[in-house]
Known about the structure:
With 78 residues, this protein is an all-alpha fold. Helices cover 63% and strands 0% of the residues. The longest helix has 14 residues, at 6-19. It starts with 5 loop residues before the first helix and ends in a 5-residue tail after the last helix.
Amino acid sequence: KRKKNKKLSVILQQKxxxxxxxxxxxxxxxxxxxxxxxxxxxxKSIPQGETLQKLLEIINLNGLKxxxxxxxxxxxxx
Length: 78
């Protein structure tokens, strides 16, 4: 059984609140299903490839990637 990714979950929830946006908005922006975003927010799955890149851009987390802490963000599960 895969462990949940709590760090990404917490950050996504905080960022959506800060932006005043909901999961449906994020799903539209990422061009993924609302269920996929729900899984990211619940820590049940991690976006991959282009979806992960889009997510980082949308919620302004590119600084984390540049700082080399993307693995920390993803609990080392990527």
